[in-house]
Amino acid sequence: MGADLLILPKGITHNLTAALLAGEPNAPQLDPSVFQRIESLPGLEKISPQRHFSIPSDEGHGETDLIAFDPSTDFTLQPWIREHLPRPFSQNDVLVGGRRPEPLGSTINFFGQSLLVWGKLERTGVGPTERSVFASFSTVNELAHEAKSHGIQTFGTSSMTGAPSALLLRLSPGAGAGHVRFALSSVPEVQIISGSGLGIQVRQSIRTILAGSIAFPLVGLGMAGLLIMVVYAGIVAERKAELGLLLAMGLSRVGLSLWLSMEAALCAFLGALFGVLLGAIGLSVFVRTFGYLLTSRGITFELPSISSQIFAAWLSLLLGSLVAGLGALIPSWRLAGREVYQLLRGSGE
Question: What are the transmembrane regions (predicted)?
Answer without folding.
Answer: 214-236, 243-262, 268-290, 311-333
